[in-house]
Write a structure and sequence with these properties.
Strand content: 25-35%
CATH topology of the largest domain: Rossmann fold
Helix content: 10-25%
CATH architecture of the largest domain: 3-Layer(aba) Sandwich
Bound molecules: flavin-adenine dinucleotide, FE2/S2 (inorganic) cluster
Oligomer: single chain
CATH class of the largest domain: Alpha Beta
Order of helices and strands: EEHEEEEHEEHEHEEHEHEEEE
Shape: globular
Number of domains: 2
Distance between the termini: 40 Å
């Protein structure tokens, strides 16, 4: 457990905020896709920590999280001022692996999924494509930062306010067509329906070279309570077993994810 001092906390756009903590020891160890479990200061009536992907880390020990205000914890988080101290546990979870030199990365991100995958873009030597989806233009976050990291950004919104009108998974066929002679490696993080569609699409077309982050409601964050289980494939009679997303995930290989189809 480490103490992280808030050095900035401000609105990014719409309900999204960016918070930075001074947390040099966590920063040193962080790999893409890992998360911090935050005990939110001033949240008096709740003892549970809240998990957030580590969006970015800097050499001078600043850890960035992008969060959307959706409930009581994130509402209180958005009110915390500079110099407030929070207990941080991390970095936690299994990370994404970076693409090999011969692999072309395609990242599929929905909502805050772009924050969870941003470190891949920054650290990958091979630059690829970000397919970024959201309900409306106000929910598309980090497009500029991905572009600055060398990724081509293609976006979609459900309401058509920005980019392709429809689901982000509808952008995949064209991205594959445009890069058909390359060895593609998929990465993804986003809402459960997006990840289920993507998993079925990839498993059915044989694109098993990929890793998806399955963010689930969490409690302890360290593998002790089993509050966060999802089904993964297994060689037993049922064909699946439970895996803890906080410990064995949140990042899983596409080929291991169980969707009910074998
Ligand atoms: C590994 C991981 C990484 C995450 N990274 C980020 C991130 O980078 N940015 C970000 O904004 N959020 C992220 N989340 C989600 C974040 O943890 C929740 O939004 C937060 O805990 C909500 O706290 P709250 O007290 O505001 O909401 P609560 O009052 O606890 O809940 C409000 C509503 O949101 C639902 N909810 C809470 N957590 C989740 C969840 N994980 N998935 C789906 N629904 C949920 C609840 O069921 C409830 O309906 C991540 C979650 C996980 C597990
Ligand atoms: S949150 Fe307790 S085991 Fe995952």
């Amino acid at each position: 457990m480490k103490t992280g001092e808030i050095v900035s906390n401000h609105i990014l756009q719409d309900d999204y905020y960016e918070i930075k903590f001074h947390a040099p020891e966590i920063c040193k160890k962080t790999q893409p896709g890992q998360f911090v479990h935050i005990k939110i200061a001033n949240l008096k009536d709740r003892i549970l920590r809240r998990p957030f992907s580590i969006c970015d880390v800097s050499e001078d020990g600043l850890l960035t999280v992008i969060y959307k205000v959706i409930g009581k914890g994130t509402k209180v988080l958005s009110t915390l001022s500079c110099e407030t101290l929070c207990d941080l546990m991390g970095p936690l979870g299994t990370p994404y692996s970076l693409p090999e030199a011969d692999e072309f990365p395609i990242i599929v991100a929905g909502g805050y999924g772009s924050a969870a995958t941003y470190l891949i873009a920054r650290r990958s030597r091979r630059k690829g494509i970000l397919l970024l989806g959201a309900r409306s233009g106000n929910d598309l976050i980090l497009a500029r930062e991905f572009a600055e990291a060398g990724f081509a950004v293609r976006s979609s919104t459900n309401d058509g306010s920005q980019g392709h009108k429809g689901f982000v998974t509808e952008l995949i066929a064209k991205a594959l067509e445009d890069n058909k002679n390359k060895k593609i490696r998929f990465y993804a993080c986003g809402p459960a329906p997006m990840l289920t569609t993507l998993t079925k699409m990839l498993q059915n077309s044989g694109y098993n070279d990929g890793e998806l982050s399955l963010d689930h409601l969490m409690c302890c964050g360290v593998g002790a309570c089993f509050a966060c289980v999802v089904k993964v494939k297994a060689g037993n009679e049922d064909g699946w077993r439970y895996a803890r997303t906080c410990k064995e995930g949140p990042v899983f290989k596409v080929e291991d994810i169980y969707t009910g189809e074998s």
